Input
Amino acid sequence: MTEKALRLGTRRSKLALAQSGQVADAVSQVTGRPVELVEITTYGDVSREHLAQIGGTGVFVAALREALARGEVDFAVHSLKDLPTAQPDELVLAAVPVREDPRDVIVARDARKLTDLPRGARVGTGSPRRMAQLNAYARGHGMDIETVPIRGNVDTRIGYVMNGELDAVVLAAAGLNRIGRSDEVTDFLSVDTVLPAPGQGALAIECAADNADLIAALAELDDPFTRVAVTAERSLLAALEAGCSAPVGALADLLADGQTVKEMRLRGVVGTTDGSTLVQLSTTGPVPETHDAAMALGRELATEMLAQGAAGLMGERAQ
Ligand SMILES: NCc1[nH]cc(CCC(=O)O)c1CC(=O)O
Output
């Protein structure tokens, strides 16, 4: 007798289906049960407005969470960077699997890198975080680029480069990897140039807080280092009172001495989209051993960033 399938709630974009497919295989392995994909359309998928205008926070996530709350699906897979920092009581983040490459990349015409974009190059990105850091880099290096707000799925965005409308677009390495288009990357941006979004490159597997058996099974897919890193990054974001469409970057990484992990470094950035001002800070300390310690690290860095004027740089998105 075959066991009843677990229902995985997913968005229907190519990227979402690719990452949900990978998680489905992994969950099937650890539970021994078949996993069935249930496609759900979210507001972020149907709206043609710019993300910054529709508020950003949660537009890709709300419909999945509603399906979970109604018991229509057993668990949901999100891109962690799209997940609001507020966690509803009735749901838990049952697993955060090993993070992929967190970097942003560009896909440019003529195989160009950021440093050799032509004068006046039009660079597509709808993300205030990417705009702020790219414009700051351009200012600091005597470059002349124009960031152009765009939206749409990964294929649409790359299409703007292919059809000549734009010289380059900025995307997440992880997304391109997951849909098998990473060979189109022309430059992997150093995180010293563009700090990724909090949680970028990581996935979140969410399920109902009262589903103890499933929570226990999904825990096997959790990567403790990724979990602690994204917890600190998201705590920073929450303490800045910013959402996923705010010009905030954060990345926690582990500093190792040979094979032994020694410390964790948390970097944060916030800036104006024109790149005229950035507040960029970092802190390094023992790897947090608890959720609370990781949260505290993010809050501490946020406090320092706020002391340096971070709130004033977030414009109308700062609440
Ligand atoms: N905002 C959309 C989004 N949400 C997650 C990813 C893929 C990368 C990831 O999982 O972090 C992307 C596309 C992009 O930013 O290029």
Q: What stands out?
A: Residues 79, 81-82, 171-172, 174-175, 200-201 surround PBG (CB under 6 Å). The mean pLDDT is 91. Residues 6-97+202-222 form a domain with the D-Maltodextrin-Binding Protein; domain 2 fold (CATH 3.40.190.10).
